[in-house]
């Protein structure tokens, strides 16, 4: 009798990051259950056996249904509200239910599994809060400033506490600024880089809340997906703590947006739009003006992961995707 391959349950499979993870998982043999509120798009050339489950995980009992029989769970659920995926108002109970509540539900659903279920949680590098240095390596003390980061940290701590109790084998991968799109993308990126790409394609100025010298560690979404799958393959070595993910390069946003304007001009044949500084809005946070570069050498040493898509190529893919999406069919 043939032994079944481990079942990987992907929560948030239709989202921006989750859909990229699904493409990565589908490209190799195995069993995958793709769970999301709306049916996830399975690649036509999938090698994996993919089960699609469309369900609202916040409904009672649905999380347990989603992870039944799981050997590995990749938690990529994101609370989405407004124009971005990460701005959360103080005291937002709906966001707390998704970000923290689903982690509690997950632990309750798998706590009696033997052996313990392996869990990979998608955290955020910004959970550390405003730091006193630009380069982060994971040794910093967490002092989250915004509600999104506080909730992410609460969820991460809840999961790692369950690991300490032996209820799961869990790790958290703190993601950098993730961006991008390409020919196989099925979900919209609501982050600032792709937002400014769409502005440029529409002929609007690219705007910054600073002088452009603020640096960000930008990683293409397909590289992030590869990292999360690598984490799932190495949970035994990664379990019990959080790990930072990043390229190791902090790109000045002024230079990034100027390059975006150039690439859009090349694709559309129109003059490049202007990159301008504007006053920050009232909801801007201290972290919006802080440069961040991430040293992910610890994660790389365990998993062997490296970014494969250079920044300029990732920007080009994103621009081409956005130009194609805005052209009349």
UniProtKB/TrEMBL annotation:
Domain NAD-dependent epimerase/dehydratase: 8-246
Coiled coil: none
Domain of life: Bacteria
UniProt-recorded name of the protein: NAD-dependent epimerase/dehydratase family protein
Organism name: Micromonospora zhanjiangensis
């Amino acid at each position: 009798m043939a032994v079944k391959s481990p079942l990987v349950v992907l929560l948030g499979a239709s989202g921006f990051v989750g859909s990229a993870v699904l493409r990565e998982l589908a490209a190799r043999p195995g069993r995958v259950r793709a769970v999301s509120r709306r049916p996830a798009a399975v690649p036509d050339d999938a090698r994996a056996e993919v089960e699609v489950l469309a369900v609202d995980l916040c409904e009672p009992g649905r999380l347990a249904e989603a992870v039944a029989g799981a050997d590995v769970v990749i938690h990529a659920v994101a609370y989405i509200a407004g124009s971005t995926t990460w701005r959360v108002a103080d005291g937002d109970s709906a966001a707390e239910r998704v970000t923290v509540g689903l982690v509690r539900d997950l632990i309750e659903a798998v706590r009696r599994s033997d052996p313990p279920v392996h869990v990979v949680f998608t955290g955020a590098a910004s959970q550390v809060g405003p730091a006193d240095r630009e380069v982060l390596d994971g040794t910093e003390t967490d002092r989250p400033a915004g509600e999104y980061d506080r909730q992410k940290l609460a969820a991460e701590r809840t999961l790692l506490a369950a690991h300490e109790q032996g209820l799961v084998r869990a790790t958290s991968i703190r993601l950098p600024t993730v961006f991008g799109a390409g020919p196989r993308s099925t979900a919209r990126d609501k982050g600032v880089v792709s937002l400014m790409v769409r502005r440029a394609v529409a002929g609007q100025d690219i705007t910054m809340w600073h002088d452009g010298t603020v640096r960000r560690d930008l990683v293409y979404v397909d590289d992030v997906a590869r990292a999360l799958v690598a984490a799932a393959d190495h949970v035994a070595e990664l379990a019990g703590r959080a790990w930072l993910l990043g390229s190791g390069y902090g790109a000045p946003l002024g230079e990034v947006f100027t390059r975006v304007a150039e690439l859009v001009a090349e694709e559309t044949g129109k003059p490049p739009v202007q990159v301008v500084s504007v006053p920050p809005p009232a909801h801007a946070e201290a972290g919006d003006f802080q440069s961040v570069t991430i040293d992910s050498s610890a994660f790389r040493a365990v998993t062997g992961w490296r970014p494969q898509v250079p920044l300029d190529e990732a920007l080009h893919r994103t621009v081409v995707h956005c130009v194609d999406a805005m052209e009349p069919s």
